[in-house]
Specification:
The chain has strands at about 5, 10-15, 20-25, 35-40, 45-50, 55-60, 65-70, 75-80, 90-95, 100, 105-110. The chain is an all-beta fold and about 110 residues long. Strands 2, 4, 5, 6, 9, 10 and 11 form a seven-stranded mixed beta sheet that branches. Strands 1-3-8-7 form a four-stranded antiparallel beta sheet, with no helix packed on it.
Length: about 110
């Protein structure tokens, strides 16, 4: 069993930034890939960004240039840096590793 604990969400004004963290209960290098997903009210969960064990990153097309995924292997932590946030980025953000999901962290962007 793996626990993923997200943090860093909150309320921010449009144009602001947030950094989300996801700390795993075991070494993140053991996972082939990890990712961030988000789910807005009434919408399905969607991929935001992912990173493979070798460090290859992938982003949703609409988020390229504003969001960045990176990790600190020594701290077993995955990050999502979010810049120039917009109201449409409002959602619950989830961390995922294989079949394991975190509990989610709310991000709310006011206009």
């Amino acid at each position: 069993q793996v626990q993923l604990v997200e943090s860093g969400g909150g309320l921010v004004q449009a144009g602001g930034s947030l950094r989300l963290s996801c700390t795993a209960s075991r070494g993140i290098f053991s996972f082939d890939s990890m990712g961030w997903y988000r789910q807005a009210p009434g919408q399905s969960r969607e991929l935001v960004a992912s990173i493979t064990r070798s460090g290859i990153t992938n982003y949703a097309d609409s988020l390229k240039g504003r969001f960045a995924i990176f990790r600190d292997i020594a701290k077993n932590t995955l990050y999502l840096q979010m810049n120039n946030l917009q109201p449409e980025d409002t959602a619950v953000y989830y961390c995922r590793a294989h079949a394991y999901w975190g509990q989610g962290t709310q991000v709310t962007v006011s206009s």
